[in-house]
Every structure is written in C-alpha cells, then in structure tokens.
Design a protein that fits this description.
The chain is built from two helices and five strands. The protein is of the alpha+beta class. Strands 1-2-3-4-5 form a five-stranded mixed beta sheet, with helices on both faces. The chain is globular and about 45 Å long. About 7% of the residues have low confidence.
C-alpha cells in the first residue's frame, strides 16, 4: 500500500469529507479543499457570512461509547492541533488571503471528527477561532 493510501490517510480523507458535509449543513460554503503550500496545508477553506474560515480537520477512528459528547479514553482528535501547527495554519491562511487579494476577515477553526466504521457514522465538533 502506498503512503498516499495509508490507513491514516484514508481516515483523514473520510474525516475531511465528513467535516465538509457537516460544515455545509451549518451554512458554510466550501471554497477549496487541501490548499497546499511548501510550509503548510489547509484542509478546508470555507466562507460563512462575510468571514473566510480556514478549517483544520482532525479525525480519529475509534468506537464511540455511549454519549458521543464524552471523550473516549481521554482522547480528542482536536487536541492534535498543537501551537506549531496553528502557526503554520496562520501563515498559510495569510498567504492565501494575500494571493487572492481578499480583504475580508478570516479565522482559523478546527473540526474534530470521531469515525465509527461499525455503525457507519461520523460525529463532528466545531471549534471556532482557535487562534
């Protein structure tokens, strides 16, 4: 199996698809996905209202237990967005806005995704303005 299609990447792709659908249901318009630059990548670029949203998606494939709002074994996928990652996101977001000559306000959000393959469901949580 090539690294492009590793299990981790497959989980990431499914998580990003689930997050994009989740954001659309919340009124976001998806503008671009997987915006890649040498120093960073933005999973989803969306607009809601007059604000451009740069969304980092973190997905985990674990069985959800009981109430999905409770943490499974103390692990939350969004906790994997560390300060160094946020700094890269901010730099990449700023570059995107400059490239597009876009003067609108923007913010960085995170979507944590729990994937439950057995029940074929995903549970998403949105954290707004994380930086």
């Amino acid at each position: 199996m090539s690294p492009k299609y590793s299990a981790k990447r497959q989980i990431g792709n499914i998580g990003e698809d689930a997050a994009a659908a989740f954001l659309r249901r919340k009124g976001f318009v998806i503008v671009e996905r997987n915006y890649l630059r040498p120093w960073g990548e933005i999973d989803i670029i969306a607009v809601k209202g007059e604000t451009v949203r740069f969304v980092e998606v973190k997905a985990v494939s674990r069985e959800m237990v009981g109430d999905v709002t409770r943490e499974n074994e103390g692990y939350r996928p969004e906790e994997q967005v560390h300060p160094a990652k946020l700094k890269k996101l901010a730099r990449t977001a700023e570059m995107y806005m400059n490239e597009k000559n876009d003067q609108r306000d923007y913010q960085i959000d995170v979507v944590g995704v729990f994937l439950d393959h057995a029940r074929r469901i995903a549970h998403c949580r949105l954290y707004e303005q994380v930086l």
